[in-house]
Amino acid sequence: MAYCPLNRVLRQWSDRIKIVEVPLFTSYVFVKISEREKALVRETDGVVNFIYNGGKPAIVQEHEIKRIQQFLDEYDNVEVITEKIEKDQRVKVNKGLFVEEEGLVLDLQNKKVKVAIDSIGYTLVALFDQQKLKNEKA
Predict the structure, then answer these.
(1) 31-45: b or e for each residue (b if 16 or more CB lie within 10 Å)?
(2) What is the pLDDT of residue 120?
(3) How far apart are CA 109 and CA 69, in angstroms?
(4) Cα→Cα distances 42→12, 52, 67, Å
(5) Shortest CA distance to 113 belongs to which of 86, 75, 82?
(6) Which of 75, 85, 92, 103 has its CA 20 to 30 A from that of 136?
């Protein structure tokens, strides 16, 4: 079994705007295979290798794949962010009500980030999903 998560995104051409599906993770396809099938997968045209973690092929649990599928069913224009957010780092909000506002990371809680946003002379403290933030230096 193979699965390539597809993200629905808006693309603009000179004459139209259209929703198209593009791979969520560039160059990645998730496969559920037996140990014996690894060689067959590697022999497939276009396959370079498996993703490794700790010297072994990375294993993505079935419930994680289902969560990705559900997320993509619910949301369009999903952005995959790989940069690491750290405490005391300056960040900029890239989605939502505070888009383009800058702030300081106060704390990290799983995938949530507590950010202090200086605005109108007050400091607002908000909890954001990491995907809604970007490193201010980027």
Answers:
(1) beeeeeeeeeeeeee
(2) 55
(3) 24
(4) 36, 14, 26
(5) 86
(6) 75
The residue with tokens 């201010």 is 136
Specify the amino acid at residue 36: R
**Scanning the structure block, which residue is given the tokens 């599928």?**
69
pLDDT tens string 14-47:
899 999 999 988 888 999 999 899 999 989 998 8
The pLDDT, as a whole number, for residue 20 is 93
Percent composition of the chain: helix, strand, coil (DSSP 3-state, to 5): 15, 40, 45
Residues 72 and 37: their CA atoms lie apart, in Å, by 28
Write down the residue that tokens 């990290």 correspond to: 108
Q: What are phi and psi of 33, to 5 degrees?
A: -140, 165
Tokens 């037996």, located at residue: 34
